[in-house]
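Worked example

This section walks through a single chain of length 753. The input is the sequence exactly as stored; nothing has been trimmed or padded.
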Amino acid sequence: MQSARKAVQLNPNNVKALQIFLEMIAYNWRKAFDADDLVTAQRYAKQVYTLTQRILKIDPDNERARSFRLLYLDYYDHDQALEERLAMLQYDPANRGNLRAIIRLYQLQYQTEKLEQLLVNLADQQPGSLDLVILLSNFYNREKQYDRALQRLLPAQVNEIQNDLKAFQEEILKKNRDGANYMAHKCVDYGNGILKKSSFEQFRDIIFGLVFALAVALLIRQVWFELYEIPTGSMRPTFKEKDRLIVSKTDFGINFPFRTKHVYFNPDLAKRSGIVVFSVENLDVHDPDTLYFWIFPGKKQYVKRLMGKPEDTVYFYGGRIYGIDKEGKDISGELQLKELEKIDHVPFIRFGGTVSTSEPFRSARGPAFRMSILHQMNEPIVRLTALGENRFEGEMLYAPRIHNRNSPPVKNYYELWGMGNYGSARIVRKQDIRGFAEKNEIILEDEKPYLEIKHHPNLKHIEFGRDQHDRLRPQFILSTSIIPLDESHLKTLFENLYTARFVVKNGYVMRYGASLPQNTPTHFLTRLDGVADGVYEYYHGQAYEIKWGGITKKLPEDHRLMRYSSDLVRKFYNYGIAFDRRWVKGTHFETDRFVYFRDGDLYLLGAPIFKKGDPVLKAFEEQENQRVSEANPQNPYIPFLDSGPPLAENGQIDVDKIRQYGLLIPPKSYLTLGDNFAMSGDSREYGFVPQGNLRGGPSFIFWPPGNRLGPPNQPSYPWFTLPNVIVWTLALICFICWYAIHRRHHKLPLRDL
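Given that input, the structure is written out below as C-alpha cells.
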C-alpha cells in the first residue's frame, strides 16, 4: 500500500501505478463496507472516485477506472449513475450487468413505471431475448407477491435497507456521532426515494390519522372529561362569560357514548346545590344543535346548578329554596349552603311564563285569541279564557306530574311554589305613576323616584292585552305597589348593583353577545355618554372593563361608571339585564329585576335595601294593609307583604305547606337553575332534565387567571367512586399498552431489525 502510494507520488501520470493504487483502495473500501465501518468505507469510496477521475483524465478508455467510477455513483449518486448507465445501454443493450444495475437504481428511486416501460421497450427491440422475458416476468410477479410497502423492492434491496438500519442503530449505541449522522442521512434518502409514499398514500394516512384522533377525542369527551367554555352569564358569579372549565364526565356514572343514557348511573352521587353539565337533547330549548370540532353534528350542553332531585318538593321564599325529599325529610340545609348565600333563586322567569294560544277570533280590537295556556317549568299550569269582550275565566290545570296528589289542589296561580313572595320591579319618576297614585289615593312626594312593583297574578284579574309577540290574548292584570326611594336607598342600590356584561359603542349600550342588524334604530337602546367604547360589567357595585379572553380589570373610582348618580342607578337597574328599553315601558312592563321579602327585609339586587324597621318600609306596609281594607270584598286586593318562610310555629319545616304549594320534581328528573336568575334560561323554561341527559360536572376553572381559578363554588364530589375507578383504570390500561408498544418500537436496540 505504501509502495503503491509512493509510486504514484513519484510519477502522478503513470496509469499503471494509479490503477494498482486504485485496486488497493477499492479493496479497503469493500473490506470496510463488509465490516459495517461505514465512515471508513465512505472515506475510501471518495478516494476511489478521485483516483478514477485522474485515470480517466489520462486514459478516457480505461474500462477498470470507468467500472469503479460507476460503482461509486451506484452507491452515492443515483441520478448521475442512472444517467450514465442509460447512455451505456443505448450502445450496448446486451450488457445484462448494466441492465440489472439500472433496474436496481430505478427501484431505489421508486420509479417502477419508468422501469416497466424500459423493460417493455427492450423486449420489443429484442423479441427473442429469453433473459428479458424472465426479467419482465419477475418484475410483474414481484408486483403481485409483495405488499404495497415492499412491492417495488427487490429482496436484495430489502436486505440492504435492513442492514443500513442495523448499522444506524449500532452507530447510535456506540455513540459514534459521525457514523450516526452519515447513516441518518442515508436513511432519510431511503425515505425520500425508494420508500417514499405516493400522494394517495400520504393523503390516506393523513385522513386516517385525523379520523382516529377525532374518534378518540370524541370518545374522551363523552366518557372521561372535556374542556368547556362558558358562553353566557347565566351562572354568574360562579362562572362568567369566556370562563374555561375542565368538566369531569365520571361524577355520577359512566356515560353511554353519543347517547342520552348511561352504562352505569348512581343517583346518590348527584348532590343538591352541585353543578351539573347535561345535554339539551329532547329538551324544549331554542337552537339546541351544535357542531363538535366544526364537523360532527350534536346537541349543546348546558351548565346549571342542581337544586332538586327526583321526587323532591321545593318551595321558594326570599330568594332561598326550602324543600323536602320523597320521605318528607327537610333538605333545606342542602339547598341553602353558607358558601352560596349570595346566590338567590326565583321560581319563574316571567309571571306569564311561556304562552300557547288557541281559538282565534276577531274582537273589537282586532284579531285575537280566546284562550291562553300558561306554562311554567314547561308544564301547562293555567288556562285563561275570554268568554266575551269583557268577561274572562281563569282555571288552574290539573298537573299531577309536578303536584302531590295527596295534597289539596292549589286554588290560585300566585300560590304556586311561593310565586306570590316575588315581584317584578322598575324605578320610575313621579310623573310616570301619577295616574296610579290618584286612583289609589296615594300622596306622592316631590322629586323622589319610586320603585314600582308588579306582583300576584290572580285568576280574578284578567284582561285582553298584547304580549311581546304582538298577540292579543287573555292575560293577567298584575297588582301594582309603589314605594319611594330615598337617596340612601339609591346609594345602597348603587353599592350592590350588578348587570349583564354589556357593550358600549358610539354612546349606546347593548347586551354583550347580542347581534343587532345593520341600521337598527337606537330609540330602544340605552344612551350612555362619557364612556369609551368597550365591554363592561357591574358586580356588587364595582364596575369592570372586560379585556381579551374574559380577563376583568377594575375601573378606578373616578371613572364615569363608578361615579354615583340617581340617573345612572335608574338606567342600570331598569335596563341592566336585557338593555332593551321596550321591556320596561308601559303598564305591563316585564323587567328581569325582582324584589322579595326575607325575614322582614325587602331585597333588591340580592341585598336588603329596605331593612326591617325602616320608616319608608313601615309606611309602605301600612299603605298595603290600608288598600286591603278598602278593597271590594268581591274583588279583594292581595298585598305585597312578607308572608314568612314555610316554617311551622316550632321553627321546623312546614311539610304540609311544602307538599300543597311546592313544586314536585318528577321521577328520574332533576331541577336545574342558573345562579344568575335574571339571565338564565333553565328548568323554569325548558322543564326538568331527564336523568339520562346528565353528563358530568365541572371540576376546575383554568381560565381566566384570578381569584376564581380552581375548583368552582359547589359541594365537593368524592373522587374514589365506582365510575371514576372504572374509567380511570381503563384509561391507565390504554396508556400502559400504548407505552409498551411505543417502547418496543423506539427503545434501542430494536428487536425487529
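What to look for: The mean pLDDT is 87.
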